[in-house]
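Predict the 3D structure for this chain.
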Amino acid sequence: MSVLTRLMHRPALRAVGVLAGATGLGQLAILASLPLLTRLYDPAAFGLFGLLTGFVGVATVGACLCLDIAIVGSSSDQAADELFVAAVISAAAVSAMSGLIMGVMILNHWIGFGQLSFWSVPLVSIMVLSNGLYLASRYRTLRDNHFEHIARASLKQSLGRAIAPILWSAVAPGWGGLALGELTGRGIGVGGLIRPLLPKLAVLRMKANWVSAWWAIARRERRYTAAMLPLALIDAAASLMIAPLFAARYGAKEAGEYFLVAMILVAPSALIGTAVADVIHTRGAALRLNAPSELPRFTRKVALALLAAGCAIYLPVLILAPLVFPFVLGNSWDLAAHIAQAMTPFMIVAFVASPISRLLAVVNKPQLKVWSDLVRVVGVPLLIEICTQHAVPFMDAMAYLSWLLAMAYLIYFLVVYRAVEQDSMSKTNTPQEQICR
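Done. Predicted structure below.
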């Protein structure tokens, strides 16, 4: 029996299979709805929707102040409940703050947000609150090993996100229909997940000073709220700021075409890369414990396998995009095929680096990811600004961006591999050093 087969027979990885299956079906439903959505909504609508979701995506990462992540590893059910309540309170506070920040950005026309209307302010607050409640509920449910509940909620959410924008198009054409459809889908997902957990929130009515209790938990868990949160926000900003920057510098249509193509091209990583990353994480942890000298070789073998898979997925996109994209998306999306071709180098490198990055957690050096994030956070805005100042055409800027992102993810892979090598040498040499002593 192969290593992969033995791993997949373990209960934890069977649970991963359930979650990955639900995620995969949900992603397929969203992709299946795109040919209709791209005919109901034009690229400019997707561009403005990308502005909104980019902001919401970054805010969502900080919605629970990363207290949601602490729930799974809490020492008892009571501690988990306290963290769950603290995460919900954080989500309410951050959602209100997010609406305020969005209003300021619209008022001052920062990073293209002036193209949105002020009714997006309450919409943003509700979306961030909904996402925060979903994260808190997901991790509290995950701690109880109710994987089937999470899978069911995830599938319902994805189906809602696929169908609701189609229905809303009759009432709210333009980016508003897309935004309301997204909110509807998210609401469907969080409703079923949080309902069994509502009794745990009753503690708020029994505590006279629950704000002080929340603050005490936030201070106690500062490894999440103070250490992990900034890194998570940098990572989210690096990934989600591209569409807003394109909207600000090149226009909503170009941003919309990029946003949609990126969503399509990332789908294989969501469907395949996440499951592979879970196996890499599990196998890497076992090797580090039992045969640390084998970990670098394992990393190289997995990287080559991922490179082959990435080429098999994305090189056909490079060749077939001009034929397939106009047929699937419609005639309004005249740049989509060229954007897909330009993004091919980045997608191949990211397909390798992202799953491999799980090994940073294995060797206890997750903070090293910040170097790749900083390259993107600094490099992407700088590149787009230089391109606009020198009147570089959008498609040329798109090609330069792809190579910059490919370089950032190559750096990411090299940092991970170097950390694995150093950890392997340290683990291998320790027994010899002890013998010498």
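DSSP finds 19 helices and no strands in the chain.
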